[in-house]
Specification:
SAM-dependent_MTases_sf, 7 helices, about 35% helix, about 250 residues, signal, seven-stranded mixed β-sheet
């Protein structure tokens, strides 16, 4: 009888953990579409920003407050010795090249082969020692396909899910972020998030834009907003939202 009572009491917790998956029709088989990949290739060819091919959000002057925060966060979390960035974006024109990186292992995942090749060439020319990282590798992958996502202490994604429809954001989180045992110790999201984005207005195609709040409906994820800043360049508010995947494993 006590075992039955415990099982019944755990049902609300289980239902809460699965609510996002049910509402957004969890489908781990969702993948980037050919049309979506084509659109991202167009945007990354200078349509977003000629000086920062991954978009204005990757401009060094836009990212400076975040970089200062991020380096302190890494220094405070020395258990983070490996990091996966998805999408890695265009390092030769992006914010990452000005970061005094700590000695951790870095893997950059990007959908576009042309971006991966440019990043590899950049590292080859500059050298890993000058960048500061311990190890660096880049590989092509689809963040909606968990099999292409390597394990690490930190999963980091910046200015990517703002171009994904809500169902695909949920598919990524539900298949890659929420795993038991956890695949990552921490998952850090960096993206635009305005007051009106609390409602998480949806978009219909990959490559369109919307701000995101992972704490609000229809996501309602166990995330914490740990930093925000307003960039002078475009006056946009950007936030850093952190998830601890182990919190979901504690529910079961």
């Amino acid at each position: 009888m006590p075992a039955l009572v415990c099982a019944l009491c755990s049902l609300p917790v289980l239902a809460g953990a699965l609510s996002v998956q049910t509402e957004l029709h969890r489908d781990q088989r969702r993948r980037m579409t050919p049309a979506g990949e084509k659109r991202f290739a167009e945007l990354s060819s200078g349509e977003w920003d000629n000086s920062s091919l991954s978009g204005p959000g990757s401009r060094p002057e836009v990212c400076k407050p975040f970089v200062e925060f991020f380096l302190k966060w890494l220094d405070d979390h020395k258990e983070v010795q490996s990091m996966v960035e998805v999408s890695a974006g265009h390092w030769p024109s992006g914010w990452q090249r000005f970061v005094p990186w700590p000695q951790i292992d870095y893997t950059g995942i990007d959908l576009l082969e042309s971006v991966i090749e440019a990043d590899r060439d950049y590292v080859k020319q500059r050298g890993i020692a000058d960048i500061g990282l311990h190890k660096m590798t880049f590989r092509k992958g689809d963040m909606l396909d968990d099999s292409t996502m390597p394990k690490a202490d930190l999963l980091f994604t910046k200015d990517t899910i703002i171009h994904f429809p809500n169902a695909d954001i949920a598919a990524f989180v539900n298949s890659t972020v929420i795993q038991c045992p956890p695949k990552y110790k921490y998952v850090m999201f960096v993206h635009d998030s305005r007051k009106r984005d609390k409602r998480n207005r949806d978009i219909t195609r990959f490559g369109e834009f919307h701000g995101v709040n992972l704490l609000g409906a229809p996501f309602n994820y166990k995330a914490e907003t740990i930093f925000q800043w307003r960039a002078k360049f475009d006056n946009k508010v950007r936030v850093v939202q952190l998830m601890d995947p182990a919190q979901y494993c504690h529910d079961f």
